[in-house]
């Protein structure tokens, strides 16, 4: 069997960082990354970007050496992606924050409102209802992160956790402050408005969950990745940082199948949009905004909607690129419109 | 091109006023209409950046234009008692000289006849003018604070049916604080541009 030699150079300085000889032809990039880590332990595989051209695109972990356009001595260029953190860790942190923070305001913990309000309770039913909905939403997200979602990338750059947590935690505190305020004003149309909004919220939560389950079932565990020697490890970081294979409707994940409606009526939205999970998510927050009649909630919904639209459009574009027979009726996030 | 014109008009008006009256008091009032009219025009700047006529990044231009519009409309226009502060003259002078230099630079560049002095001015004047302008703006906002607190202007209090509140006083404090991270970034950006243009230095940009 013909063996390859692999030299790894720094993409910026062209300094020779590592030389590997007797590399098997069917070795994957992931395995090469593991070998590279042995000589440079500070660059664990998740923070390595290896490419054929210093300014080119990163090679994928599952790419096989002999299938690349290289001679028997392959030159790869290395870029440090910076400290990485696992998706699971980021999600758990960014969702646990709002859950906890909202409750601080709900229970009117001292130093938030005036002292005479410490540990008092709102006299409005909608305020209690809002707490249940908000808490349910984030508990659902935490459980989905632990048991439902399958992440194709193990990690993201460390600075993302600060950015994401500022967003989630900041908005949660801002919303919670007004909803649980002693001077909170209940919705203009009273119980009717609250009931309608609650219905929207519940339907969208069920819808969002149904889509997550449908996406998870698109590819059962074990089928992915494509067989290479020993399978693929993408970024194992600490306890619980190991990923599960597969994909979900996340930006950048590699799709293999077009999602279709199942027997669950909530999934029928797939007929009209590529990312119904985002559609339902926006719907939930609109429901919550109507229920609480709180402008900060509406602003949070708007910002979230903007971000999810960007993600949905990206996802939609990659579906269209990958599948010739992609259903033409589908829009990215809003049926017929967007 | 024609964008230097409003600033030249302003500069001349300011000099004339001071020569006639011998004081800066009332200066703002006399030039305010011109200032507001042309400053709002500056929104076109952002469009130019987007189309690519001007080689500045949209974000940098956006920050500059927003802060100018903020100062003109939300501070000096809305808080009349501070219009006669010396700090107002400070930032008006800084803005005027900066803009005349900058637009002359663009005009001559487009005409392919760029005198070295204009290039030199565009990349050196800012070293003094930027900090001077910032000091003028900050002092003006600081002077406005007591009036804002007293009148409660631009603020929404609880309770109200949209369950939101906004305190312009604290907003101004936060705005003043935001100069701390923002100003150095803009300043060092200009310093880098200066090294590149005047001294032909090749700057290796930080990778993302």
UniProtKB/TrEMBL annotation, chain A:
Positions of transmembrane segments: 85-107, 166-184, 196-215, 286-311
GO MF terms, alphabetically ordered: very-long-chain enoyl-CoA reductase activity
Domain spans labelled TECR-like N-terminal: 5-80
Pathway: Lipid metabolism; fatty acid biosynthesis; Lipid metabolism; sphingolipid metabolism; Sphingolipid metabolism
UniProt xrefs under InterPro entries: 3-oxo-5_a-steroid_4-DH_C, SRD5A/TECR, TECR-like_N, Ubiquitin-like_domsf
SUPFAM superfamilies (UniProt xref): Ubiquitin-like
Subcellular location: Endoplasmic reticulum membrane
Keyword presence, Lipid biosynthesis: yes
Keyword set, alphabetical order: Acetylation, Endoplasmic reticulum, Fatty acid biosynthesis, Fatty acid metabolism, Lipid biosynthesis, Lipid metabolism, Membrane, NADP, Oxidoreductase, Phosphoprotein, Sphingolipid metabolism, Transmembrane, Transmembrane helix
Entry's Gene Ontology BP terms: sphingolipid metabolic process; very long-chain fatty acid biosynthetic process
Role noted for this protein: Involved in both the production of very long-chain fatty acids for sphingolipid synthesis and the degradation of the sphingosine moiety in sphingolipids through the sphingosine 1-phosphate metabolic pathway. Catalyzes the last of the four reactions of the long-chain fatty acids elongation cycle. This endoplasmic reticulum-bound enzymatic process, allows the addition of 2 carbons to the chain of long- and very long-chain fatty acids/VLCFAs per cycle.
UniProt protein name: Very-long-chain enoyl-CoA reductase
From TrEMBL, chain B:
Membrane-protein topology: Multi-pass membrane protein
Membrane spanning stretches: 43-76, 123-148, 168-188
One example of a Gene Ontology biological process annotation: fatty acid elongation
InterPro entries cross-referenced by the UniProt entry: Tyr_Pase-like_PTPLA
Gene Ontology cellular component annotations, sorted alphabetically: endoplasmic reticulum membrane
Catalytic activity: a very-long-chain (3R)-3-hydroxyacyl-CoA = a very-long-chain (2E)-enoyl-CoA + H2O; (3R)-hydroxyhexadecanoyl-CoA = (2E)-hexadecenoyl-CoA + H2O
Pathway named in the protein's UniProt entry: Lipid metabolism; fatty acid biosynthesis
EC annotation from Swiss-Prot or TrEMBL: 4.2.1.134
Alphabetic keyword roster: Endoplasmic reticulum, Fatty acid biosynthesis, Fatty acid metabolism, Lipid biosynthesis, Lipid metabolism, Lyase, Membrane, Transmembrane, Transmembrane helix
Top EC class for this record: lyase
Domain of life per record: Eukaryota
Location(s) in or outside the cell: Endoplasmic reticulum membrane; Membrane
Predominant place of localization: endoplasmic reticulum
Keyword DNA damage: no
Gene Ontology MF: a single term: very-long-chain (3R)-3-hydroxyacyl-CoA dehydratase activity
Pfam annotation, one family: PTPLA
Role: Catalyzes the third of the four reactions of the long-chain fatty acids elongation cycle. This endoplasmic reticulum-bound enzymatic process, allows the addition of two carbons to the chain of long- and very long-chain fatty acids/VLCFAs per cycle. This enzyme catalyzes the dehydration of the 3-hydroxyacyl-CoA intermediate into trans-2,3-enoyl-CoA, within each cycle of fatty acid elongation. Thereby, it participates to the production of VLCFAs of different chain lengths that are involved in multiple biological processes as precursors of membrane lipids and lipid mediators.
Family that this chain belongs to: Belongs to the very long-chain fatty acids dehydratase HACD family.
Protein name: Very-long-chain (3R)-3-hydroxyacyl-CoA dehydratase
Organism: Ailuropoda melanoleuca (Giant panda)
């Amino acid at each position: 069997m013909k063996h390859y030699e692999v030299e790894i150079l720094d993409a910026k300085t062209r300094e020779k960082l590592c030389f590997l000889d007797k590399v098997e032809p069917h070795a994957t990039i992931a395995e090469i990354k593991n070998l590279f880590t042995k000589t440079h332990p500070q660059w664990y595989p998740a923070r390595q970007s290896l490419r054929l051209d210093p300014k080119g695109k990163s090679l994928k972990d599952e790419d096989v050496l002999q299938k690349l356009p290289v001679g028997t001595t392959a030159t790869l260029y290395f870029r440090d992606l910076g400290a990485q953190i696992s998706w699971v860790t980021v999600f758990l942190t960014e969702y646990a924050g709002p859950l906890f923070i909202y409750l601080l305001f709900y229970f009117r913990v001292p130093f938030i409102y005036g002292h005479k309000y410490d540990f008092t309770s709102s006299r409005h039913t909608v305020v209690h209802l809002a707490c249940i909905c908000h808490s349910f939403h984030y508990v659902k997200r935490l459980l989905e992160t632990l048991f439902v979602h399958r992440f194709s990338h193990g990690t993201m750059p460390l600075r993302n956790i600060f950015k994401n947590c500022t967003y989630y935690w900041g908005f949660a505190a801002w919303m919670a402050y007004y909803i649980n305020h002693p001077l909170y004003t209940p919705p203009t149309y009273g119980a009717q408005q609250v009931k309608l909004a609650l219905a929207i919220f519940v339907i969208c939560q069920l819808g969002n969950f149904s889509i997550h389950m449908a996406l998870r079932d698109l590819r059962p565990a074990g089928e992915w990745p494509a067989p290479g020697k020993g399978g693929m490890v993408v970024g194992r970081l600490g306890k619980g940082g190991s990923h599960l294979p597969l994909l979900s409707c996340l930006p950048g994940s590699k799709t293999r199948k077009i999602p279709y409606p199942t027997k669950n009526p909530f999934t029928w939205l797939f007929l009209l949009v590529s990312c119904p999970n985002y559609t339902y998510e926006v719907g939930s927050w609109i429901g919550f905004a109507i229920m609480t009649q709180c402008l900060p909630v509406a602003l949070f919904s708007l910002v979230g909607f903007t971000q999810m639209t960007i993600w949905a459009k990206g996802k939609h574009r990659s579906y269209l690129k990958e599948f010739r027979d992609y259903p033409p009726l589908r829009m990215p996030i809003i049926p017929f419109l967007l | 091109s024609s964008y230097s014109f409003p600033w030249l008009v302003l500069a001349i008006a300011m000099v004339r006023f001071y020569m006639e009256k011998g004081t800066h008091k009332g200066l703002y009032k006399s030039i305010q209409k011109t200032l507001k009219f042309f400053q709002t025009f500056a929104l076109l700047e952002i469009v130019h950046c987007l189309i690519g006529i001007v080689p500045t990044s949209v974000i940098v231009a956006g920050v500059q234009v927003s802060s100018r519009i903020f100062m003109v409309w939300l501070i000096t226009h809305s808080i009349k008692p501070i219009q006669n502060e010396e700090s107002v003259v400070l930032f008006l002078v800084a803005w005027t000289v900066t803009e005349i230099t900058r637009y002359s630079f663009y005009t001559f560049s487009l005409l392919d006849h760029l005198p070295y002095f204009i290039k030199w001015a565009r990349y050196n004047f800012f070293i003094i003018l930027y900090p001077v302008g910032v000091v003028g703006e900050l002092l003006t906002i600081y002077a406005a604070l007591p009036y804002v607190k007293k009148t409660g202007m631009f603020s929404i209090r609880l309770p109200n049916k949209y369950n939101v509140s906004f305190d312009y006083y604290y907003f101004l404090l936060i705005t003043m604080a935001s100069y701390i991270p923002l100003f150095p970034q803009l300043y060092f950006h200009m310093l880098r541009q200066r090294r590149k243009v005047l001294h032909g230095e090749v700057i290796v940009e930080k990778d993302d």
